[in-house]
Amino acid sequence: MTFATCGHDCNKCDYYGLECRGCAASSGNPFWAEFRGYSACPVSNCAKENEYASCAQCKKVPCEHWEDVRDPELNEDEYERLVEERKQNLYMFLHYLKLQKDKNG
User: Fold this and answer.
1) pTM
2) What is the pLDDT along the chain (105 residues), one digit of tens a residue?
3) Which in 3, 55, 57, 85 has the greatest CB count within 10 A?
4) Which residues of 16-37 are buried (b: 16+ CB within 10 A; e: fewer)?
């Protein structure tokens, strides 16, 4: 699975592999950023500034940056479901990081 910095499952995105290569491959500069008036994704920028591998390491999730990049086509229920899914993905990622740290001492 490929996850964005914010926990979004890239494999569920219609643009992944076409217009978008994912956060890691695009260095946090997804194709849609310019259409939204950003030079890069605010979520990825925040993670970089705080030296986080992802939002999984942040205590403010979800934050205003998530709201800033919210898909305008989603209604409130759809957005809330997506936020919960992303939070679960981040939890799994954090668990993975812990396992790797424990494994490597």
Assistant:
1) 0.84
2) 688 999 999 999 899 999 888 888 898 899 889 889 999 999 999 999 999 989 999 999 999 999 999 999 999 999 999 999 999 999 998 888 788 888 887
3) 55
4) beeebbbbeebebbbeebeeee
